[in-house]
Amino acid sequence: MDILLPPHELDKLSNVDPEIGEALEFFPQSQLNGLPPEERIMRMRQGFNAMPLPDPVPAVQQSELSYTTRDGTNLRMLLFKPAAAKEPLPLLVWYHGGGFCLGRPEMNTELYQEMVQHQQCVVVAPEYRLAPEHKFPTPVEDSWDALQHIASHAKDYGADPKLGFILSGESAGSVISGVLSLQARDTGLRPPLTGCFLCVGSYFDFENIPEIYKQHYRSRTDQKCLSSPMLSKESKAAFDACHAPDTRSPWLRAALNANGHKGLPRTYMQACGMDINRDDSFCYRHLLEENGIETKMDVYPGGPHSFWFMFSDTDLGHKWKKDTQRGLKWLFQR
């Protein structure tokens, strides 16, 4: 698939996957539209936090750690690693999604367990503070503080970043990872990152798209994307109202980094076809490739934003799981 698709090919991607579309017929209409942003977020947060967690896996050791932010706040980190590990292993850091307003590290426990077993790596998943209680740029600043702590304490976790040091996340966590991959380069983080996994994030200031990308940046005005069940126009507006980000800041949009985009590690990306963030991935991948960065991307036609949370048992959901492990294997250069 070409890095920059023509407009008509992009528009086809937002036609809902038939299997997911059939399942959506049984989904009730959202009762949250019209609520004030903070009330909507609090109700969504309750639902996220009530999601059942998978049982522990004997082959995976799980524990809870902590790190301290620049203002002296102690936050949690989850650690997952092979229970039988006797030697240091590669390291993967994962930031959860949720529009900077929802979510917690636990929400991806099943994914962490699969990563540990398939990749034989150590996974660390940090907590970061959420809006509206903690607005921009606190979530990304917390995440940078966490990454520095992890890099300097990797041996304590049974990891050796020289064997592989992958920065990753989905949705808001991918926004964070894109920004921090540049911050790591600009500040000379040691050990250096060896790879980045950017999953369904946003990377551009959508009100100031570079001319080269304008005809390819269509998902934010596509009505099928705007009404997507996982990230709709209404939920996105509530996230933004509570997070209050500066959309022109390189601490929110990786494409805006003033030092350019050379010297980044190889990057694996994922994009959902029925997602307002879709075209950020196509355009940012092009930007990276233009700067000599090796990339790989998987696209899920007709998949709503982060569809695997709700539709994991569909053919597209199974494909996402397989692609994710293949993408990580590529990042670890195995």
From TrEMBL:
InterPro entries: AB_hydrolase_3, AB_hydrolase_fold, GDXG_lipolytic_enzyme. It comes from the Eukaryota. Residues 92-308 form the Alpha/beta hydrolase fold-3 domain. PANTHER family: AB HYDROLASE SUPERFAMILY PROTEIN C4A8.06C. One of its GO terms (molecular function) is hydrolase activity. Transmembrane segments: none annotated. This is Alpha/beta hydrolase fold-3 domain-containing protein. Pfam families: Abhydrolase_3 (PF07859). Keywords: Hydrolase. The keyword NADP does not apply.
